[in-house]
Amino acid sequence: MNSLLLTRAQHLTLSGALALATLSxxxxxxxxxxxxxxxxxxxxxxxxxxxxxxxxxxxxxxxSGSEGASVGLDEQxxxxxxxxxxxxxxxxxxxxxxxAAKREAxxxxxxxENLDVLMKQARIRAKGDDGELHFLTPEEILEQRKKAQEVIxxxxx
Length: 157
Hints:
Layout: H1 2-28, E1 32-35, E2 41-44, E3 54-55, H2 66-120, E4 125-127, E5 133-135, H3 138-155
Antiparallel strand pairs: 1-2, 1-3, 4-5
């Protein structure tokens, strides 16, 4: 008789443990992202059935009530979206910085070449505002040297 009671007690303990584990499952589930047939992006703490989804690597706040869980999940999705936007902006900034550095390097090279010509050549022809070629005066050569040196000082680092 004792062994039968013990078995029932074990059964009740095991049933209770399984019930608690089942109730706490949503707290361990991840956040999933998927795109529906209309191209709309969805996020949920439950893996969608019949649709390819991606686990986002964040955990939802444990459910104390269904409304509180969706607020916690919405906040995490918003945070994830903000992180993704920040990463996109960082990538864009890095790309713009690389382009600016290339422009500066190109300007530097061109200014050094121009200054070299301005220092070595006595007679320099340039297009005027009218589109005609004319020889630079000594004053114009000095002005062009000054401009080239300013570009070198600014862009050659």
